[in-house]
Write a structure and sequence with these properties.
- The chain is of the alpha/beta class.
- The strands form four sheets. The chain has a seven-stranded mixed sheet with strand order 1-9-8-7-6-2-3, with helices on both faces. Strands 10-14-11 form a three-stranded antiparallel sheet. It has a two-stranded antiparallel sheet with strand order 4-5.
- α5 runs parallel beside α13 and α6 packs parallel to α7.
- The C terminus is likely disordered.
């Protein structure tokens, strides 16, 4: 409805009523105007009606929604199902062009505007979250692992002789596979045990650089967010080392946006040394469906180089999801989630510590990990070899999702490489343990219910275990003699 149409409405409905409706419409349009002017996340969240009005306005700018449009090409935004069309707000053309995911599509001005605005709003959120000097970013419709692969493939053109990626160990298959898929040889550097924490072995990394030759190293691939007892890599020292040897530095910041500590490490690393790009998941940080990531960096030209490496057009769904979410929350709403997550981390730590003490276990001391916690399972291991893994099964069947139970000595082969002590980030961590994390969106009710179910499972396992070592010995001897008879 433009001003001319509102004037015509006054011939049908009382002018005072029409003017009131016109003013309400201008309220929505004012919010949209500010977004277009500033390209930043609004401080206060929009109503659903404002978000939907904006998306509908974008959709009518795409050629598939033009009245009287006749498409004779192979890709004309045709959708057979009305349900599918509504699910995507009729924004069907996706983002980018065949040569550049960030390029504008001539026949999809609305989708192109959506893409540009999403990248701008997300950049603002990265700055708000702690990386204030980040220069550029873009949303890519791939999860974290494949987004890391895209970064490595881009570096290949800059360092054609390089074969190796130096990688402080983190036991997550997608991180390892991202390097293999890009065609490089991961050089795994074991972490060092510092108290209960597993930390970056800086000396071993520098030895590897000198051994392999800096020109043969594609990059250092470090990590921020991770499962305790591993803690974020020592980014400042690594960034300084990369600057010293002129080696690129890619950071896996999978769910680190929600942590001010992880974001501060990236900011400081870029300030004192070299960080070329950092990659973060959309679903883990912004509570949207799986399928997207943000690739960001401090050199706009390099970030654009990565975006141009993506072959073909791309789905707009991840961009649409995160834009809707951030417009609905506003900067204040998102910051509230971050603050609540930090508060619940302290609550989870205290509850887990109390529960561990009640069962003769302890909360592992990992203060450098701002998201994940770990509780020892020494007593459970002593009672039975199978009890540790059984605890994981019991929690899962009781609808406790996300808790990880890590036994001792597990081996796992990933793309031909055998990892000893897999999932513990170490060949020989001293004890089995259970992980729990305070991630964005968690509630106190989640923690309370989890502790209740965990307590019940631990009591059941102890009740089923032999009451003493002598009882275990007697039952073993009885089985032995009965077998000999």
């Amino acid at each position: 409805m433009n001003s001319e149409n509102f004037t015509l409405c006054e011939k049908v409905v009382a002018p005072s009523y029409v003017r009131q409706g016109s003013q309400a419409r201008r309220g929505h349009e004012q919010l949209i105007r500010l977004l277009l002017e500033q390209g930043k996340c609004p401080e206060e969240g929009w109503s659903e009606s404002t978000v939907e009005l904006f998306l509908n306005e974008l959709a009518v700018m795409d050629s598939n929604n033009f009245l009287g449009n006749c498409g004779v090409g192979e890709r004309e935004g045709r959708v057979a199902s009305g349900l599918v069309a509504r699910r995507h707000y009729r924004l069907i053309h996706g983002i980018g062009r065949s040569g550049d995911i960030a390029a504008v599509q001539p026949k999809a001005a609305g989708s192109s505007l959506l893409n540009k605005l999403t990248n701008s709003v997300v950049l603002d959120i990265l700055k708000i979250s702690g990386v204030r000097s980040v220069a550029s970013c873009f949303v890519v419709p791939m999860a974290t692992g494949m987004s890391l692969t895209l970064c490595f493939l881009t570096l290949r053109h800059r360092r054609p002789k390089a074969r190796y990626i130096i990688w402080p160990r983190i036991d997550q298959k997608s991180c390892f596979k991202s390097m293999i898929t890009a065609g490089f040889e991961p050089v795994v550097v074991e972490n060092v045990l510092d108290g209960d924490e597993l930390r970056t072995d800086l000396e071993a990394i520098e030895r590897k650089i000198e051994e392999l030759g800096a020109e043969n190293v594609l990059c250092v691939h470090s990590t921020t967010s991770c499962f305790a007892p591993r803690v974020p890599d020592r980014l400042e020292e690594l960034a300084t080392m990369c600057a010293k040897y002129d080696i690129p530095h890619i950071v896996n910041n999978a769910y680190g946006v929600q942590s001010s500590k992880c974001m501060h490490l990236i900011q400081q690393g870029a300030r004192v040394g070299r960080i070329d790009a950092f990659v973060q998941s959309l679903d883990k940080n912004f509570m949207v469906p799986v399928g997207g990531a943000i690739i960001a960096g401090f050199d706009e030209a390099f970030v654009q180089e990565i975006s141009k490496m993506y072959p073909g057009r791309a789905s707009a769904s991840p961009s649409l999801d995160v834009l809707i979410t951030l417009l609905s929350l506003g900067a204040s709403g998102y910051k509230k989630y971050l603050s609540e997550r930090k508060e619940i981390y302290s609550f989870l730590a205290q509850e887990l510590k109390n529960l561990a003490s009640a069962h003769g276990e302890r909360l592992l001391h990992t203060p450098r990990n701002p998201i994940s916690l770990a509780m020892s399972l020494d007593g459970l291991q002593a009672s039975s070899d199978q009890a540790v893994t059984q605890l994981g099964s019991m929690l899962f069947t009781r609808q406790v999702s996300g808790a990880r139970v890590i036994p001792l000595g597990k081996e796992q082969v990933v793309n031909g490489r055998t990892f000893c002590g897999f999932m513990s980030h170490s060949n020989s961590y001293p004890c089995p343990y259970l992980n729990a994390a305070s991630a964005i969106g968690i509630t106190r009710e989640d923690v309370t219910l989890c502790m209740k179910k965990l307590d019940k499972c631990l009591k059941m396992l102890k009740k089923d275990a032999p009451s003493s070592s002598s009882e275990t010995l007697c039952s073993g001897l009885a089985r032995l003699f009965s077998g000999s008879r």
